Amino acid sequence: MLLVLCVDLDDDLGRKTDIETPVVGRDTVQAAAVSLATTDPEDSDVNVLFKGLHIADEVTDETVEVAAVTGATGSDVAANRAVGDELDTVLAGLATGEDVRALVVTDGAQDESVLPVIRSRVAIDGVRRVVVRQAQDLESIYYTMKQVLDDPETRGTILVPLGILLLIYPLAIVADVFGMPGAVFGVTSGLLGIYLLSRGLALGERLDQVVESGRQALFAGRVTLVTTLVAVILLAIGGVIGAENVASMQAEAGDALEVIDVLAALVYGSLQWFAAAGVTSSLGRVVDDYLSGDFEWEHLNAPVYVLAIAFILHGVSSYVLGIGDLPYLAFTLTGATLLGLFSTFAFALADSRTGRRAGPT
Known about the structure:
Elements: E1 2-8, H1 12-16, E2 23-24, H2 26-39, H3 45-58, E3 64-70, H4 76-93, E4 101-106, H5 115-119, E5 123-129, H6 138-150, H7 152-166, H8 168-177, H9 181-200, H10 203-220, H11 223-253, H12 259-292, H13 301-321, H14 326-353
Parallel strand pairs: 1-3, 1-4, 4-5
Antiparallel strand pairs: 2-3
Helix pairs in contact: 2-3, 7-9, 8-9, 11-12, 12-13, 13-14
């Protein structure tokens, strides 16, 4: 007796339809094939089932039975074990005194990894691997390209860089008219580089997350939305003032400043603005935590630490620039350290006295 055995190692038949496996008999296998084709016509296991039926119809000189067995998703070991168990069920249900031989039908090398399991239970006459004929034709290439280009993710990955490259020639013609042929390659390579960096660093996804977080914060009435905007403005002002301070000291010195002097001048000029930005941002977070009921006294350490760091940087930068003397540097370092220690101890004590939480319930 010949058993035409259709193997579905990843259990597409069981997962995508309501059919219980194993499936034994021509009519039940045909019904299973139609059901799977209706659910997912692109699944290659559909072709395996119909190929098994075709082979069974061709055999006329001996008794033949067709069956479909499935494995499991995930572990290959679990999938092979599941196929073996279902094959035992199939063999036990065959009411025949003849020796049973199997003709295995698969759709690829992955499913054929279960052959040793099948061979341990029944003799194998052969293996038929199903290859869809259209996969070798131009129709399949067109269909594949159409499927790829319909995917927004793939479309952006392929078409955008290709479009930028195709723009080089027309832009070069336009630039040549205006006498700027070299600018084209710089602009196009820059655009391509920016795009590739944004794809590699997932900047688009991060931007979407930032926009979504901002939208939620806006509708939730979060104070951090305002304080963050104010902090960004303060940082920008501080950066400009710091750069102006560097330029001013450069003009007074005449000679080029050393790197340490440039950094000290930049910090000294922008420090108060940066400290204000840090305090504003951290206080906004504290207010939101209080309103949401997640406030802890330790959260107040953030603005205090910002002030302590500002004192330290002010003392160091003023000492490097010769504005402050050594005693002032010692005073700022010691004062900032004591401020941080006092803040940590005081707010930790407040947390322990109040059960670590405060705010509305």
